From TrEMBL, chain A:
This is HEAT repeat protein. It comes from Lacipirellula limnantheis. Coiled coil: none annotated. It holds the Pfam family HEAT_2. Residues 1-25 form the signal peptide. Transmembrane segments: none annotated. The keyword Signal applies. Keywords: Signal.
From TrEMBL, chain B:
The lineage of its organism: Bacteria, Pseudomonadati, Planctomycetota, Planctomycetia, Pirellulales. PANTHER family: BCDNA.GH03377 (PTHR43818), OXIDOREDUCTASE FAMILY PROTEIN (PTHR43818:SF5). This is Glycosyl hydrolase family 109 protein 1. It holds the Pfam family GFO_IDH_MocA. It comes from Lacipirellula limnantheis. SUPFAM superfamilies: Glyceraldehyde-3-phosphate dehydrogenase-like, C-terminal domain, NAD(P)-binding Rossmann-fold domains. Its EC number is 3.2.1.-. Residues 217-429 form the Gfo/Idh/MocA-like oxidoreductase bacterial type C-terminal domain.
């Protein structure tokens, strides 16, 4: 292949990539270094740019001599560095180092950055020189880049340059040097050289540098020392400066060791309420076991921030004393605090919690009993006797809690108990809760057909309003039995049963509702319900997985049943959404009907030729 | 050269991995009444002052979520586009009833203000990681939109930087704070589905994308659109209005990212949570086959990207399958379960439309308590690594193995070279 022929091939690969475009793997990387080198030699800037990007994958030392001159090109320098940063050869480092003598300003900074990314030890003298140049010329960006690269690279010489710079009279220089020192210290700490790291952190901390640099250095100084860093941690936790307090709270979560938790608990003794709450949050985020009367006291204190923090901590362990404190808090007048405690109780791990809660039920009354019964439900504790004995409690809150808990816990065999509560409730508010409970119980029954059969039995003697409720529940239960029971009920039912049934079928999650919906679309009493049923039928065709033939058949049936253009349009949208031979057949058949001819023809056209049909 | 280029600068990251885990129990999502003044307003000392960086369409939505929080005071906006600076100032000033929202073209001026606690970063993806690192160095906590990194190296750098600087970071994966997604992930994570076998994520397309260089057009006045700042860390190219769509410009490294990163930073993030893999990522990645991409975690769980076969549950669907059960959910807020028993008496609120309000509240609470928010840097890091690694397998069209200890692809230098990419001068992270 001649060079010219190669170039034509390269351009054919490159040009589509000059814009933002989707590309297959072959389009992106079907090339090689030789082709890309040719582009660097002869291509236009745009082509060279993309070639550089690909050389990040394909480049070797053979590309470096052509990439190096681009480091002096303001438009292409960073493209070239994309390749040079990636090429695993010392020639790339050398090219970047050499460029420093030929560039200035941002171009020089770019090369320094790349040397820092590569951690080029041989470049440290040049980085230090750049730092000195930046200081002398008041070039803050050059100082930042050089100090960052020195910190990234590390080593004795780099650290020496940074140590010198952190004593500079200029604040911006000290700031940059502190950042570099902290970066170098982080590497030392990661390498297990904690003492050396601590020394560097301390130097940065002691210097006259911006607060954020001091914060970073302080964090490092604590972590590098382990337990010996706790006094410094405490200093932050007691700080009047919000930023240092925050730093202490964050570091208290990072520092490992049991002594940290002990320290936090001890600090609670003297901390003001707002700070104590923050300390408790830090304790809660640690995994240490904490046994502290102060936490229990915080949960029932008058300070809601303390209460919320304590709730979070107490919820971690299934200790009876924690349960008692949280129960007390769950009855708090502050609704937010009470809800947080109740939620925590509901989600606490451990069977011991369940046993303790059940033990408390017989002696509880009023609000506390309602809380306990709610928890029985939310934790799904098998305590049917306790619940049924509370169904006639004088306190509506207790009755409602018991009903809701029954909804969460009854077995299939116990479902009639809940049905009875629904059908016989005298208090309207009890009835409303009972229906919700029955629905909650029904939808979680493992054998939905058996559940539906049980519900269907109740329809026969129920009032129209109760029938509507049961039909709604059947819709949520799903399955063949439920569908059949709903169909029967709607066939014989009053208006409100039809209303509930057609609404429920609108959310049906299986295609098996299609025959019933089509029947309702044609024969339901009332146009409103026919239209609703037809739309639900079309929804199944639009959204659910089925064969092309089945979908086409449904569309054809829907077109036949539709009395209005609105529903016909929905069918056409389905056909357009699934363009295939079966859809085309339906569209063409529809186009033979005079009233559908024009629209159906457009749909057929769209399916055949892929153009928008409307 | 100090080390082979196949080694990322990851030493700090590996050694400083948190010894203390994130709390299992959710942070409070309320403002204690003790923080409120007599008129119900939040006392000035309890307010969180916020600045915005790059506030376009998505950012304006996020801004609304911030402004509806009573303890937020929005002080300033930085944007390369004058129209956006003006629009955001109008929104903030009208909300606060003053004229105090300051505007900047260069976000570094905003970061230089001592009176700003936190920033909302909603630039295009090109800027996310770089702006986040600068914000961290300036001592700001941040809520950063996704995808928040362009490559694997940036992902590792992100978590490293947030720890080193002690910052609270929340990526805009708001579904972590929506009850139906959280419940679905909990079912998978806590073994309620039996031994977990497969988790499914929905990509928005399975093509690799690359940003390029369009024909030059007349460069606008920098006061109106600052093209140099718009490019920022992305390599230079002439101005072309089509590239001003920040949403699609330079999403990720050598590859723009494509749909795997765009949706993956949501869906994969949820899968990661379901697998309890916030500190890890899949270790094997296959190229596309049968309209799917399959990746595998070390424990054998498969992460499957697929565009088809989803239930009609809205956008961003996920599905988790175990040996005894499965759950599927999406942005409709609805859950579909293999067995209703999985609800176990729980009432899961159905919140459709993926609002970010709860996620923003989670972030603000953590700014105060210094806890880790749901979309913290480590969670974001590994979810993004999973997406980037998938994209690399997609681009190279071959199977890859990823060593989580070394953060490198095993025996594949080309793949390793795609883990990072040089930034345009003078930017560095």
């Amino acid at each position: 292949m001649t060079i010219q022929m190669q170039l034509v091939r390269v351009l054919a690969v490159s040009l589509p990539l000059l814009a933002i475009s989707a590309a297959t793997a072959d389009e992106l990387f079907n090339t090689n270094e030789a082709e890309l080198i040719e582009v660097l030699k002869t291509g236009q800037p745009a082509e060279k740019a993309i070639a550089c990007k690909k050389l990040a994958v394909f480049g070797t030392k053979d590309s470096v001599s052509l990439l190096a001159p681009l480091l002096e090109d303001e438009q292409l320098a960073s493209w070239a560095r994309i390749a040079l940063e990636a090429i695993d050869d010392s020639a790339a480092d050398a090219a970047l180092r050499d460029s420093l003598a030929k560039t200035k300003g941002n171009l020089s900074i770019g090369s320094i950055n790349s040397l820092g990314v590569r951690g080029d030890d041989a470049a440290v003298p040049l980085m230090a020189e750049a730092l000195a140049t930046g200081i002398k010329s008041n070039d803050a960006e050059l100082v930042d880049a050089a100090a960052w690269a020195l910190g990234q690279t590390g080593g004795e010489q780099a650290i020496g340059a940074l140590r010198s710079a952190i004593k500079n009279e200029k604040g911006a220089v000290r700031n940059a040097a502190a950042l570099g020192l902290v970066l170098a210290a982080e590497d030392l700490l990661a390498a297990g050289k904690a003492d050396e790291a601590a020394t560097l952190y301390d130097e940065a901390r002691a210097a006259d540098v911006p607060k954020q640099r001091k914060l970073e250095a302080t964090r490092g100084a604590i972590l590098a020392r382990g337990d010996a860093g706790i006094p410094l941690l405490v200093e932050q936790l007691r700080s009047d400066d919000k930023k240092f307090l925050q730093l202490g709270l964050g570091t208290a979560r990072e520092l490992a060791g049991a002594k940290v938790a002990e320290t936090l608990v001890k600090e609670l003794e003297t901390a003001p309420a707002d700070r104590a709450a923050l300390l408790i949050y830090a304790l809660a985020d640690r995994r240490d076991a904490v046994e502290a009367p102060a936490i229990l006291a915080a949960a029932v204190s008058d300070d809601d921030s303390m209460q919320l923090a304590a709730i979070r901590l107490l919820a971690r362990a299934d200790d009876a004393s924690h349960v008692d404190a949280l129960l007390q808090t769950a009855a708090d007048d502050n609704a937010d605090v009470a809800l947080a405690a109740a939620t925590a109780l509901a989600e606490m791990p451990g069977d011991r919690v369940n046993g303790h809660l059940v033990e408390l039920v017989p002696t509880a009354k009023g609000k506390k009993l309602a809380i306990l019964l709610n928890l029985v439900g939310k934790r799904r504790i098998d305590a049917i006797d306790a619940l049924t004995s509370s169904l006639n409690d004088a306190d509506a809150g207790v009755r409602h809690a018991a009903l809701a808990a029954l909804g969460a816990t009854v077995s299939a065999e116990q479902l009639p108990l809940l049905v009875k509560q629904c059908l016989t409730a005298h208090d309207p508010s009890d009835a409303a809760v009972a229906w919700r409970a029955l629905k909650a119980a029904s939808v979680r029954m493992p054998d939905r057909d058996a559940c539906a059969a049980e519900l269907a039995k109740a329809i026969a003697n129920a009032s129209p309003a109760a029938q509507a409720q049961i039909v709604d529940i059947l819709g949520a239960v799903g399955g063949g039995n439920a569908l059949q029971a709903m169909g029967n009920a709607m066939n014989d039912g009053e208006d409100q049963v039809l209303d509930a049934g057609t609404r429920a079928l609108g959310n049906w999650m299986e295609v098996d509702a299609a025959p019933l919906l089509l029947d309702l679309a044609k024969n339901a009493k009332g146009e409103k319900y026919q239209v609703r049923a037809l739309r639900s039928y079309i929804r199944l065709a639009r959204q659910f997985k089925m064969s092309e033939a089945e979908r086409a058949e449904m569309c054809a049936a829907a077109l036949e049943a539709a009395q209005r253009d609105d529903e016909r349009e929905l069918v056409f949208a389905v056909l357009e959404r699934y363009p295939n031979a079966e859809s085309l057949r339906v569209a063409k058949a529809a186009a033979k009907q005079p009233k559908l001819r024009e629209r159906a023809a457009r749909v057929a056209e769209a399916i055949e030729h892929g153009s928008p049909g409307n | 050269m100090s080390s082979a280029k196949t080694t990322l600068h990851r030493r700090r990251f590996l050694k400083t991995a948190l010894s203390v885990g994130v709390a299992a129990v959710a942070a409070p999502t309320i403002i204690p009444s003790s923080a409120l003044g007599r008129d119900g307003a939040v006392a000035p000392s309890e307010r969180i002052t916020v600045g915005g960086i790059g506030i376009g369409n998505r950012g304006t939505y996020d801004l609304g979520c911030f402004l509806e929080q009573p303890d937020v005071q929005f002080l300033a906006v930085a944007d390369v586009k004058q129209a956006r600076r003006d629009a955001v100032k109008k929104i903030a000033d009208e909300h606060h009833g003053n004229q105090d929202c300051d505007t900047y073209r260069d976000f570094r001026e905003l970061l230089g203000r001592d009176d700003i606690d936190a920033v909302l970063i909603a630039t295009g993806p090109n800027w996310h990681a770089t702006a986040a690192m600068y914000a961290a160095r300036a001592g700001k906590d941040m809520y950063c939109e996704k995808p928040c990194t362009k490559n694997i190296a940036q992902s590792l750098n992100l978590v490293d930087t947030m720890r080193r600087t002690g910052r609270v970071f929340q990526v805009g994966t708001q579904r972590r704070n929506l009850p139906h997604f959280a419940f679905a992930c909990e079912l998978a994570r806590t073994g309620k589905l039996g031994k977990l076998k497969r988790v499914y994520a929905h990509p928005a397309g399975m093509s690799a994308l690359m940003s390029g260089w369009l024909p030059a057009e007349s460069t606008p006045d920098p006061k109106v659109v600052d093209w140099n700042m718009y490019l920022g860390p992305a390599s230079w190219r002439p101005y072309n209005e089509k590239l001003l769509d920040g949403f699609n410009f330079e999403k990720g490294g050598g590859l723009v990212g494509g749909g795997v990163l765009e949706w993956g930073s949501h869906c994969v993030d949820l899968c990661q949570w379901a697998v309890d893999a916030d500190g890890q990522a899949p270790v094997e990645y296959d190229p596309p086959a049968n309209k799917q991409i399959v990746a595998r975690y070390a424990n054998g769980v498969e992460l499957i990207f697929r565009e088809e076969g989803w239930m009609p549950l809205g956008s961003c669907p996920v599905r988790f399958e175990g040996e005894t059960g499965w759950v599927e959910t999406g942005d409709s807020g609805k859950l579909v379960l293999s067995s209703p028993e999985l609800l176990a008496g729980r009432e899961v609120a159905e919140i459709g439309g993926y609002p970010a309000t709860f996620h923003v509240r989670d972030f603000l609470d953590c700014v105060k308590t210094r806890s880790q928010p749901k979309g913290n840097a480590e969670a974001a890091c590994f979810a993004h690594i999973a997406c980037h690694a998938t994209n690399i397998a997609l681009a190279l069209n071959r199977s890859l193995k990823y060593d989580l200890a070394k953060h490198e692809f095993v025996g594949d230098e080309q793949a390793n070279r795609l883990r990072s990419e040089a930034l345009r001068e003078p930017w560095q992270i």
